[in-house]
Amino acid sequence: MQTSILRTYRRYIITFTLLAAPLAAVLLIVDMSLAGDIAIDLSSADNLVWHFGLLVMLWVYGLPIALSCAVVMALLRLRRNLKDVVLSVPVSMIVIFISCIIAEWTLGEGHPSYRLVFTIVLQGGLAALLLAPLLPKAS
Which of 6, 67, 70, 113, CA to CA, is 20 to 30 A from 93? Predict the structure, then answer.
């Protein structure tokens, strides 16, 4: 039974993992620039390298979280219908929130910045909504 779930969701897990992390990273960088936390200036090569490094760092750190979201959605057997698409957003937001809090408690200073966690959760939920068409078709 578990083998058929992995076979059905294999393409979804791979594509969601590879696309959700950079999409959420781009959304987070755009949100931070609109809020005034960082200034995007792509006029020099140094600034371009810095922004590309930030994007790669956010992508690499987001890969395990994206993989966790994709596996949880596969275990819940979500399909491409309205009910499951609507359900995929809060599921991914809960997984992202738990991952951020655990990462901050174990790797960080022990007290998470809830504004940053809230922003990451919202950007991850938006990325999950934008990638919902990747879910397997409803049978």
Answer: 6
